[in-house]
Write a structure and sequence with these properties.
Elements (H helix, E strand, L loop, with lengths): L1 H8 L3 H27 L5 H27 L10
Helix pairs in contact: 1-2, 2-3
């Protein structure tokens, strides 16, 4: 969430896209951490499945927004006249 906010506040499409990409990477990273949490029995299989699916869904949502931005002609608020 913080990466998304930081990228948006930079005011340009390219920067926003870059920070969305970082956020998508973090969604993958947390899925890896869920595996370790399950292996160490910090969470149950049910919790793992729910959390993993949510992180996967967020990654897909981020990819959708990144895809939209790639096709958009908008450049960002810092380019407004």
């Amino acid at each position: 969430m913080d990466n998304i906010a930081e990228g948006f506040e930079r005011g340009g499409k390219k920067e926003f896209h870059q920070f969305l990409s970082i956020s998508k990477g973090s969604a993958g990273e947390i899925r890896s951490q869920f595996y370790r949490s399950l292996d160490q029995e910090f969470i149950t299989q049910k919790q793992f499945t729910e959390l993993y699916n949510l992180a996967e869904e967020i990654g897909k949502m981020l990819e959708g927004l990144m895809s939209y931005l790639r096709g958009s002609e908008l450049r960002g608020t810092k380019y407004k006249k």
